[in-house]
Prior knowledge:
CATH architecture of the largest domain: Alpha-Beta Barrel
CATH topology of the largest domain: TIM Barrel
Structural class: alpha/beta
CATH class of the largest domain: Alpha Beta
Number of strands: 16
Radius of gyration: 22 Å
Amino acid sequence: MVTVMEKQVLLVNPWIHDFAAYDFWAKPLGLLTLASILRENGFPVRLLDCLDPLHRGLDGLPGRGKPKRKEGGAGHFLREPIPRPAVLRDVPRTYGRYGLPPEAVREELRKIPPPDLVLVTSGMTYWYPGVAETIGAVREIFPAAPVVLGGNYATLCPEHARIITGADRVLPGKGEGHLESLAREFLGSDLAFLPDPDDLDGPPYPAFDLYPALDQVPLRTSRGCPFRCTYCAASFLDGRFLARDPVAAVDEMEHWKKLKGVRHFSFYDDALLAGSRERAVPMMEEILRRNLECFFHCPNGLHLREVDEKTAGLMRKSGFRTLRFGFETSSVRRQLETGGKVTNDETRDAVRHLRRAGYGEEEIGMYLLCGLPGQTADEIRASILFILECGARPILAEYSPIPRTALWEEAVRSSPFDIAGEPLFQNNTLLPCRNGDLSPERWRELKALARNGSRGIPPR
């Protein structure tokens, strides 16, 4: 009879299929948290991360160099051109598989014993071809293993995922909520330990030790977002806003620095600075008190409203290096329509505090959301010029329509693509909700303005 300890669980982070993909401090944080909970319950776990940029399968590839990495933990994925899906055949861009070569993935799978359960995560909805190909590779090596799919795509498009991906089960929502039933059904055991879903400090640290090499570790000091922006699915995916104890968050940083020598951390919070006096400020003060000498990167949009003189100074002193803020637009009307999370005056004040704290213009990145339903090229241009005038760097972020958001129905009506029936049309590369005013030529002009426009425009 097979004992519980002999039951094996394989956790898989799949390939990305897309026109473009870049490793902005990407790691499957949710999947690694499930791995740590399963280990706490005595189950051996293995990880296959098809996007691991430091995987040994990338060494010595004939005719292909290893992807370039930055010191802070961001960089390129290995990219292999593959045929475009049929519905995207008219898009004049090269389509690619991002991540480990297929031969390296299959070799990795052949090295391990057949798992009793395979847990696969998923990201953007329009990345599903990579999910399906990854599940196919797992099935090729382990045809009898049950495959369960979770993650964002599985939560936002569950029926599509059940039809397309080949998974035995598609489980929307937080993975922790499904672990007990999965363990009972596939692993033949109840879980002795299952953390309280409302206590973010309850789970063991994510299983980053499963990676042979790490150049950065992502952290979440909170879950969900107190704002309800119409274009964002955070409230649907994560529910109500929950926060960790700020000192416990610094404990985790110190743990990974001591155990794995990690000095670069990325924040996956949707609202890292929300309630900064109770959360981010004490966290940064604790980082300084312990003299951690680490560096922090914020690829998700930080909230400008919370940036005052004290917060900006602490961010600089404690090691915040990659700053990205969710500004989205300088149109007052659209700011109010999409959630009202920040005003133009608050943005000016925040940039002024950041500049006085020592950040340069190029270090203060402001996301501008482009291609929203009904948005004109002139609105985007005005937003770019506003950010340049403030003394920050505009970063154009193409709008991807996301199911379950407040803006979804309007996006469906405005798009010339069948975005409701085919998630591939939700790809932001297509600017799927742009109108005739935002022509390809004007879009190129706007990108050039955002890239080069600061020349000759002095900060206010």
